[in-house]
Write a structure and sequence with these properties.
The complex is a heterodimer of chains A (108) and B (473).
Chain A: H1 2-7, H2 10-30, H3 34-59, H4 65-95
Helix pairs in contact in A: 2-3, 3-4
Chain B: H1 2-17, H2 24-45, H3 52-58, H4 60-63, H5 73-92, H6 102-119, H7 123-141, H8 148-179, H9 184-196, H10 202-219, H11 227-234, H12 237-260, H13 266-289, H14 294-310, H15 319-349, H16 365-368, H17 370-384, H18 390-403, H19 407-424, H20 426-431, H21 448-462, H22 465-472
Helix pairs in contact in B: 1-2, 1-6, 2-5, 5-6, 5-12, 5-15, 6-7, 6-12, 7-8, 7-12, 8-10, 8-11, 10-12, 11-12, 11-14, 12-14, 12-15, 13-14, 13-19, 14-15, 14-19, 15-17, 15-18, 15-21, 15-22, 17-19, 17-21, 18-19, 18-21
């Protein structure tokens, strides 16, 4: 099983990451539920993580710089999720909704 | 480095010391400590003292041979400018009876992120700086918890901020895939090596474009600006002032540092940066003209300033270019923080409802408080770029410098500057208007910090050689 992954070309990883990133991107643009938006942003960050891990392995970087970056992204994503969920809870307390399309009072 | 350490230690001290105390007790000490850190950085940036070996020894174990954070002379000056402006913004904050100094501490942590962005030499550090800058600001923009506008602003800023970070990260991953390194200088070496053999891989091209898009989101240049007026309008006034000034300057200098490494590719990225700059100046100014509330006008005017700042990319790179960015950042920070201060002060005094804080909040300002109206006038003149203020010096050097690169962009910027006079001078009608409620108090008290800032604006306008001696070297 492991050998299948090792024999995969780098382009497969790039395509997979791009597809995952696009799913997240279109989710952010078109979904309206705040929790789903948060999940879509996490998906985008994880697509980048996968890409970085694959690139590090592909280039045989002795310092594994890319994989170190993955840890930084994971930590920051956790911090962002904590703040994001707190903001969603705050909005929910005031509006009893987690739907962002109701938040349209600020406009030109 | 010294400014970063002072800011961080102050933030930790205030966070723990201020749990049960009133916020206003800590405002002055924060101001003094930031002033101390910023002044040390300013002295160091003039080459008078050199503290870097001292901090280098402390951090030797953490930073390896090639540091991820590097504070050269220009970066030190940028850090000093941003620290001093943040000190003044904090000193101008209105005194509240709020318990707990968490807002101050969050602002300082955010400032740490701004300083890290300016000093970054490595894509990981750039990313960490942006996140340390942004995450406290997501909390701050929603810090008025009961207010629905503030809630909306927080959620909009959070979603757009993380979205732009994800785009920047994808760009960094592509650059890493193409070059195998995160250091700006190494990326440049690999790229010029590849270009020498006539290759320019699509992966790196895509990576550079995505990284630039992520940074342009942060400074709210025009195709990516749609979030910023809403966010600034909904956020509490003091946070909006911090966001409009600190985030923009830090994001801008980080962008300049990043693309400065690839100056030999100027022809390639100018194809899209020059149109972005033009459209940002025009759209920002025209949209500001039709706004009814003061806060939204200020938000659009800060978008147009992002356009002016972007003009530097067309000029040939060098020390002079960096000094112009520093001067413009200083002028923008001083003027805009004063405008936000007066907007905040007079919208608290006015009786109109929350959503319609039009220009009539300034009605009769001249009769209520003569001295304050003069300071306000100085701030407006500086932001509009009228001679004898620092705003004019900054704009003059920027336009003169960019004229060598692209005449068309300079003409567009001049037109935008002319349009901006129309909305910057709107408050003058209100200042001298006699339509104000008689019972409102007249006073002669002024804020000494605001007075000092207006004196700096005038003094540097009359004696620009203190700023421009860097240009002539």
């Amino acid at each position: 099983m492991l050998s299948i992954f090792q024999n995969l070309d780098i382009s497969h990883y790039i395509y997979l990451s791009c597809v995952l990133f696009s799913i997240g991107l279109f989710g952010v643009l078109f979904r309206r539920n705040a929790i789903v938006l948060l999940m879509c942003i996490e998906l985008m960050l994880n697509a980048v993580n996968l890409l970085l891990a694959a690139f590090t392995e592909y280039m045989g970087d002795p310092n594994a710089n890319g994989q170190m970056f993955v840890f930084f992204i994971m930590v920051v994503a956790a911090a962002e999720a904590a703040v994001g969920l707190a903001i969603i809870v705050m909005v929910y307390r005031n509006t009893r909704k987690t739907d962002v399309s109701f938040l349209d009072s600020l406009k030109d | 480095m010294i400014a970063l350490l002072v800011t961080f230690l102050t933030a930790v001290f205030i966070l723990f010391a201020g749990i049960q105390k009133q916020e206003s007790q800590f405002k002055n000490i924060t101001f003094l400590l930031l002033l101390f850190g910023g002044s040390l950085a300013l002295i160091e940036s003039q080459g008078i003292i050199n503290l870097e070996p001292f901090f280098g020894k402390i951090l030797e174990g953490y930073m390896g041979k090639e540091p991820m954070l590097e504070f050269g002379l220009f970066r030190l000056m940028a850090v000093a400018i941003i620290t001093l402006i943040a000190a003044f913004i904090i000193a101008l904050m209105p005194a509240t009876n709020r318990k707990g100094s968490d807002i101050l501490a969050l602002m300082l942590f955010s400032l740490c992120g701004a300083q890290m962005m300016i000093g970054s030499n490595h894509l990981v550090m750039l990313f960490l700086g942006i996140e340390i800058l942004s995450i406290p600001l997501y909390v701050l923009s929603g810090s008025d918890k009961e207010n629905l506008f503030s809630n909306e602003s927080a959620i909009k800023y959070f979603i757009m901020g993380s979205f732009s970070t994800a785009i920047l990260l994808l760009g960094s991953a592509f650059i890493y895939g193409g070059t195998g390194t995160f250091y700006f200088s190494d990326i440049n070496v690999k790229l010029s090596f590849a270009a020498h053999f006539g290759e320019f891989p699509i992966l790196i091209k895509l990576g550079l474009v995505l990284t630039l898009v992520g940074l342009l989101f942060k400074i709210s240049a025009v195709p990516f600006h749609f979030w910023s007026p809403d966010v600034y309008e909904g956020a509490p006034n003091r946070v909006a002032s911090f966001m409009a000034i600190i985030v923009k300057i830090a994001g801008f200098i980080a962008l300049a540092q990043f693309i400065q490494n690839f100056s030999w590719m100027q022809g390639w990225y100018n194809q899209f940066l020059i149109p972005i700059s033009m459209i940002t100046i025009l759209l920002g100014n025209i949209a500001a003209l039709v706004q009814k509330t003061v806060k939204r006008t200020l938000a659009y005017s800060s978008i147009s300033h992002a356009g002016y700042l972007l003009m530097f990319v067309i000029a040939p790179f060098g020390t002079a270019n960096m000094w112009i960015i520093g001067t413009y950042a200083l002028a923008y920070g001083l003027g805009t923080s004063l405008l936000f201060y007066f907007m905040d002060k007079y919208s608290l005094e006015s009786q109109t409802s929350e959503t319609s804080k039009g220009f009539d909040i300034f009605n009769g300002m001249f009769y209520k408080n003569k001295r304050e109206s003069i300071i306000f006038t100085v701030a407006i003149l500086s932001v509009a770029g009228i001679p004898s203020t620092i705003g004019f010096v900054a704009k003059f050097h920027l336009f003169r410098h960019s004229f060598e690169g692209s005449t068309l962009l300079t003409i567009v910027a001049l037109i935008g500057s002319a349009i901006s006079i129309a909305y910057y001078f709107k408050p003058f009608k209100n200042i001298y208007s006699s339509e104000f409620s008689v019972e409102s108090t007249t006073s002669n008290s002024i804020n000494w910090i605001a007075l000092f800032m207006s004196i700096v604006i005038i003094a540097l306008g009359f004696a620009p050689m203190f700023l421009t001696h860097g240009l002539l070297q």
